[in-house]
Amino acid sequence: MARGKLIVFEGLDRSGKSSQSLRLVEKLEADGHHVLHMRFPDRTTPIGRLIDAYLKGESNQDDHVIHLLFSANRWEASSTIHSHLAANTTVVLDRYFYSGIAYTHAKSLLSSTSSPSPPPSPLTLDWCTSPDVGLPRPDLTLFLDLTLEEAARRGGYGGERYEKREMQERVREVFGRVWMGEGDAGRKAGEFVRVDAGKGMEEVEEEVWMNVRDMWESVEREGKGVGVFEMK
Ligand code: Z5A
Ligand code: MG
């Protein structure tokens, strides 16, 4: 029996993840597919509410604790994702574990340049990756890449904790390293695709669609099952 596909949108703030993920859902539904759209963090669960308060600066958390809460917020959706894929519903995610890895590791790069003594446990790429090992593995991750200048032209950032130029710069650097194949989250042929998000809305949509179509054909042709995210 056919299965649903797991498609992830990743990228910086303002790169168009929400807009493009919703456009893709509409397009797939118009093609007759069943689709579930989800976003991370899911701020509606008890864990999501802790994350929401942290992002809004209403509470503080140790860097390791907040990282694990972001991961737990994905784990609480894991069985829902699996059951939808098994029932031939495609799942489209607005952010997933790549955000977890990129944002937390970026923080360590910031603190290592601004503070003279190293943090007690460095937030290495491997440490940041390990809590998400075992989650449903995306069939395709679309990394919407946008320069900071282009993001600024889209009205600048909001007021949440990570919405600062210095942080966004580091996050973009880490996403780039992952895209180049660094660490266990690193590029696996064809599964982590960079899309130039600085183009017009329709052009980006077209590029997204071409990548989705290619992935779809290859999953069906090769009869690939649903995978889990593994360490190399
Ligand atoms: N975070 C984390 O640290 N660890 C984790 O594990 C996870 C997340 C999962 C959640 O933010 C924060 O949590 C985030 C990472 C961290 N922190 N930061 N920074 P969020 O997901 O709630 O917010 P966001 O999605 O990053 O921000 P956003 O502004 O909603 O960005 P977007 O969804 O990528 O963009 P958009 O809403 O589709 O578009 C933004 C604007 O640009 C809008 O006016 C559009 O009309 C416009 N736009 C979009 N595309 C185009 C094109 N192609 N041309 C022109 N204008 C465009
Ligand atoms: Mg968004």
TrEMBL record:
This protein's GO CC annotations: cytosol; nucleus
SUPFAM superfamilies given in the database record: P-loop containing nucleoside triphosphate hydrolases
Enzyme Commission code(s) on record: 2.7.4.9
GO biological process, one term: dUDP biosynthetic process
Alphabetical UniProt keywords: ATP-binding, Hydrolase, Kinase, Nucleotide biosynthesis, Nucleotide-binding, Transferase
Nucleotide-binding recorded as keyword: yes
Protein name: Thymidylate kinase
Species assigned in the record: Lineolata rhizophorae
